[in-house]
Amino acid sequence: MSARGAVFYGVGVGPGEFELLTLKAERILRAADVICYPSCKPGGSSYALRIIKPMLDLSRQRLEGLLFPMDKDFARLIPIWHESARAIVSHLRENRSVAFITEGDPMLYSTFLHVYEIITEEFPEVAVEIVPGVSSLGAAAAAGRIALGQADEAIAIVPATYQKHELKELLERFDVVVLMKVGAVLDQVVEVLDELGLRDRALLASRVGTKQEIVTRELEAYRAKRLHYLTTLIVSKRGVPLVRALQAQAAQARPSENGAAVEPI
Question: What letter would DSSP give residue 257?
């Protein structure tokens, strides 16, 4: 049976706060026949599911946890991803629409991408729609009131598990660096920040929008502590607000009364 009739949705459900769910995501999730969610172990729940579960109609909708172990052994993971993809396609072939939910945005470091690539390559007849969500880095920046990019600033968004020398290169090269899932390596990252004199330019944000929210610049308080994997660190090297910096530049370039440019102070 073809899987052409039903639609496979990749739905970003945001960083944790229900009100950050988009209207489109809510509409699709209320209508979908099957809600698939990633789980680290068989029979487990998921952070994404906890965000949306109160709005689901479980008398009509089916929940299906798909296994996505926290593992870097790709020889083991790839067959598991294929199994998840086949489970999704089996629902589509029965004309059941499937929504795969993921925290944040489905196109940014999400588990959805693994099954999406497999399905689009192996089952090209499947209709796919991707619904963007509020990313954790966007929510962190808003909560901490820190700009992710202004004017011509260059931004890097990377996993926090970079080697120390690579992380130093990134921090030296880019104006803003966003480190995703930093909880397990915070101590090492703080060491690098201290070497570069950037600790006071860093913002730590974890589980933004939930009761467990952490938004702070006091990194020392969280060293040697186990933080949730949904923890982000934003490092912005700009020490002065952009508008103030531009005003200072304009003042320095303004001609004096005798027509000569004012020298910078």
Answer: T
Q: For the chain, give every residue range classified as CATH 3.30.950.10.
A: 137-243
> Smallest Cα–Cα separation from 10: which of 137, 132, 139, 130?
130
Summarised one tens digit per residue, pLDDT across range 65-115 is 999 887 778 888 999 999 999 999 999 999 999 999 999 999 999 999 999
- Give me the sign of the Cα torsion angle 66, 67, 69, 75: negative
> What are the start and end residues of each CATH 3.40.1010.10 domain in the chain?
7-134
Who contacts 143 (Cβ-Cβ below 8 Å, separation ≥6)?
A: 205, 208, 209, 213, 215
CATH 3.40.1010.10 fits 7-134, yes or no: yes
Read off the pLDDT of residues 171-211 as tens digits, 9 standing for 90 and up: 999 999 999 989 889 999 999 999 999 999 999 999 998 88
Q: What is the pTM of this model?
A: 0.86
265 pLDDT band, cuts 50/70/90, is very low
Task: Tell me how far apart the alpha carbons of residues 27 and 128 are, in angstroms, rounded to a whole number.
Answer: 16
Give the CATH number of domain 137-243: 3.30.950.10
Strand-pair category, 202-206 with 214-216:
antiparallel
**Neighbour count for residue 73 (Cβ, 10 Å):** 8
